[in-house]
């Protein structure tokens, strides 16, 4: 796959970062390389959580359902957990599609696929157990 032309983009969400390489003239094979070095299909990666898989491929389905069979993708994921990874892959797919054809922007933008979700984990403050959880108060 590395010798073919491809469009790539980075998607991020929470602590997750996903690099999506989109290869044209494919057969719909979406391969994920995890941080441990394993390479598995995208559907297997989400352990049967179909809503996370459908969320990740939503930009392709929104444009045209047959786009799933027209591209191959090689996805590298680092950090985070599966819900954040799914959103990071979704943003990576959307950005790679726009890199391929700028006309897709008008279709994808109303669905919010091009917006990075800025919410991150809040830091722990001194004197508290977690970010906002205070120790149990006792009168004496």
Could you give a short description of this structure?
By secondary structure, the protein is an alpha+beta fold. The chain has helices spanning 42-45, 50-56, 58-63, 67-70, 82-100, 105-108, and strands spanning 7-13, 16-24, 30-33, 39-41, 71-78. The chain has a single domain (7-111), classed as Ribosomal Protein S5, domain 2 (2-Layer Sandwich).
Structure description:
By secondary structure, this protein is an alpha+beta fold. Helix content is 31%, strand content 22%. It has 6 helices and 5 strands, in the order ββββααααβαα. The chain has a 5-stranded mixed β-sheet with strand order 1-2-5-3-4. Helix 2 packs parallel to helix 5. The longest helix is centred in the middle third of the chain and has 19 residues, at 82-100.
Question: What does the secondary structure layout of this molecule look like, with pairings?
Answer:
Blueprint: E1 7-13, E2 16-24, E3 30-33, E4 39-41, H1 42-45, H2 50-56, H3 58-63, H4 67-70, E5 71-78, H5 82-100, H6 105-108
Parallel strand pairs: 3-5
Antiparallel strand pairs: 1-2, 2-5, 3-4
Q: What labels would you give this structure?
A:
5 strands, single chain, Ribosomal Protein S5, domain 2, alpha+beta, 31% helix
The spatial strand order of the largest sheet comes to 1-2-5-3-4
Total domain count: 1
Q: What percentage of the residues does DSSP assign to strands (E)?
A: 15-25%
Report the principal-axis shape.
Answer: elongated
Summarize model confidence as the mean pLDDT. 90
Q: Can you tell me the CATH architecture?
A: 2-Layer Sandwich
Q: Helices and strands, in N-to-C order?
A: EEEEHHHHEHH
Number of helical segments? 6
Q: What percent of the residues sit in helical stretches (DSSP H or I)?
A: 25-40%
Radius of gyration: 18 Å
CATH class: Alpha Beta
**Cα distance, first to last residue?**
68 Å
- The fold-level CATH name is Ribosomal Protein S5, domain 2
Unreliable stretches, pLDDT < 50, 5 or more residues?
A: none
What is the tally of beta strands?
5
């Amino acid at each position: 796959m590395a010798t073919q032309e491809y469009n790539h983009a980075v998607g991020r969400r929470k602590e997750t970062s996903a690099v999506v390489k989109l290869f044209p003239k494919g057969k719909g094979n979406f391969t994920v390389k995890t941080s441990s070095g394993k390479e598995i299909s995208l559907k297997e990666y989400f352990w049967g959580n179909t809503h996370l898989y459908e969320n990740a491929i939503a930009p392709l389905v929104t444009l045209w359902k047959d786009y799933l069979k027209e591209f191959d993708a090689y996805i590298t994921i680092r950090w985070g957990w599966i819900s954040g990874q799914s959103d990071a892959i979704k943003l990576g797919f959307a950005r790679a599609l726009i890199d391929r054809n700028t006309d897709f922007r008008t279709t994808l933008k109303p669905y919010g696929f091009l917006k990075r979700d800025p919410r991150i984990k809040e830091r722990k403050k001194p004197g508290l157990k977690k970010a906002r959880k205070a120790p149990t108060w006792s009168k004496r």
